[in-house]
Structure formats: C-alpha cells, structure tokens
Specification:
By secondary structure, the protein is an alpha/beta fold. The chain has helices at 9-12, 19-31, 37-45, 77-88, 106-113, 125-137, 173-177, and strands at 66-69, 72-74, 96-100, 117-122, 143-146, 159-164, 179-189, 192-198, 204-211.
Amino acid sequence: MIARLRLDPGTAGIGMTSQRVRDRLIERLREQGIRNEQVLAAIRNVPRHVFMDEALAQRAYEDSAFPIGHGQTISQPWVVARMTELVLDTPTPPKKVLEIGTGSGYQAAILASLGLQVHTVERIGALLRGARKVLRGLGYNVRSKHDDGRAGWAEHGPFDAIVVTAGAAALEPALLDQLAVGGTLVAPVGQTLLRVRREEDGQLRQDMLEPVVFVPLLAGVIDG
C-alpha cells in the first residue's frame, strides 16, 4: 500500500515539476525495464524536487543524478527504482529496511511510501539534518542516525532488506551480519549492482546485476 503524502502546492509541483512531467519520467522508467507498479507509483507520487537544491528543482524529473552538496548526489530515478524493485522482489514482502547513506532522503522517502519501516544512517551531519526536515515535512516516520554507515545499525536488526547507496570494493561484513533470513541486500560493489539474499539455511546467494556509478562509501562521520 502506498502511504498518503500530505502535499502542499510546493510539493505538488507546477511547470517542470508537474504531474504531467512526472508521468513522462514513469514512461521512461518503464521503457528501461522497471516493471513493479508499486515502485512506479512511488516514484510518481514522491516529490523528488523538494529533496533538491532550488536551482536544480526544475530538472528533478529528468532521469539523472544531481549534486546535493558535500560531494554527494541524489541518485537518478532509474537507480532508485531498480534498487527498490529488487528489495521488493522476494517471496515474503519485507517490513523493516536499513538504508546506508541517507543523502537527500529521497530513497528513504520512496521506501517509506511503500509502507516499509525505514532505518537510515548518514555520515554527513548537514545532509542528515536536511533530509530529516524534508521527510518530516512530507509526513514520513523514518528513523535516522548520524554515524558511520559501514557498521549498520545492529540494535535494530536484523533487517528484511538493506539498501546501500554508496559504492565499495567489497561488502561490509557488519551489514551482512544484520541481514535477516530470507532478506535481501542491494549494494553497488565496484561498478556493478549486487544483490545478496540470505537463504533459509543461512547461506548467502549473490547475483551480479547491472553496471552502476555511485559515490564511494567512506569511513567516519562529519559533523558539519
């Protein structure tokens, strides 16, 4: 079920952020292979422009990544849709998800709009504060933490799904440890999107998927 947004005129969008422009984005995503209608509805309904700098907001419904400051980006809609689609593609629908790399808050909003319990970790304090403000304004109850995302959030695990929105050379063992039986982890490793599933016997099954480009997954925290 898609959660209902509390939209004001600024979030509903006009001109290049209007519903008609969003619908064109959805058609492009369909053409690029996104099939899950719940995911497409979430991309259509969540106002991406409010997660972006005002100077770039008119381009929010292009299928492109854009800078959000601090060397980070808001991922292109196709990447957000694809990672979300992979999270949902399980025999048992996920309930609790961990996101590593809050960034603008857009991916967390998409996940929350699908009715998931979202826990998100961000290492850059200024980004997290901005994301929290926007998520609260849209009425999402997303639990967030300012910390080094490589450690995950063990006290709230295990998670039915884990979404990593920054690239690394290898998967973090701490994140794999927090993946529930039957759960799915989606992460960019190297230049490839990787899906990991924990089978009923506890074993991990990995599938290498599409080539992707992400900012790097870095250590430590930044308070500024």
